[in-house]
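FAQ: What does the model actually see?

It sees only this:
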Amino acid sequence: MTASLAGRLILPDRIVGGTLEIAEGRIAAIHPGPETGPYLAPGWIDLHIHGGDNADFMDGTPEAFATVCRAHARHGTTALLATSTVGTHEQIIRFLQTCRAMLHRDTGGAIVCGAHFYGPYFAEKARGCHLGGALRPPLAPEYEEYLTYADVIRTATIAPELPEAEAFARACMASGVRLNLGHSHATWEQVEAARAWGARHVDHLFCAMSDRARLRQSQTYPMRGGLMEATLYFDDLTTEVIADGKHLAPELLRLAYKVKGADRLALVTDANRALDMPDGTYVFGPCDGGEPILRRDGVGLMPDGQSLASGVMGLDHAVRTMREATDAPLPEVIRMASLTPARIAGLDAERGSLAVGKRADVLILDETLHLQEVWIAGKRVVG
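And it is asked to produce this:
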């Protein structure tokens, strides 16, 4: 299949007029042209995404995976890491088996490029909306079975203060799995140790993590930094923000962008199954035993209506929110949803920017950054 798309091309560092020539699912050529017409942007890439359209990856079926992928394609996501939750050993194995079966398959929507192994190795005090009863420390007999799916798992999250966290981290690195830190009340020193193990990314900045104020509750003096401060300080740590306008106020999005910059900060949805669903009660995680949550006021909430419980908005909304909240130039805002997450996940050779030879995952956007069309591998799937 061949196609030509003309408009204002959003490249990683500038906007130029031109035409994309698409052939066999890839960008075959880029021709210069007038800087008029709609914006053409690379497809969004979501590193942290649980569900949508009343399905969750932890449901563990091909139908659930395809439903989530189609839902997020409607919001401009063309590739993603299917993200697990805290669950039983059997539920996690089912998730990994299905992820392997769905890897790189045509879903009619976003492409599953791997798994984000996310839980059960979280700190109890930072578990958020994840099932408390299924939290556990990493033990070799269990995680060694998970790592037999290292061909599928691109990233794995650990709270570095847990017993045996170092052994799990080093096993991940030896298996070629990237190491994230998250859902943690780690001290500064524990974060430094995790960097030595190979950790290079931190999940959802400002959310479910230790900081000076939280650590102050269990320490006397001097006051000390935690995972939040260490994430902002260390240049070799990339991170992500849930830019839905509900998790983080504009000043926190501005702070994250100012300190980390567009090359070390990715936009994520952390979306649950309530994306594109009406307000009401849903289940976070597997349908057979997940945690009850609410969708209300454009966000996920715990049943008390006070505590946050992941997101319900797409990456298109996150891009517009980040654009409005910061002084970031448009190419940098787009980069935080495309090339930066692609690099973090090791997908940038194929995805993340409009370049000859890369996959033709292209978004057509109007002046207000609302989606007009979504193209995945050279095929129009939305619009």
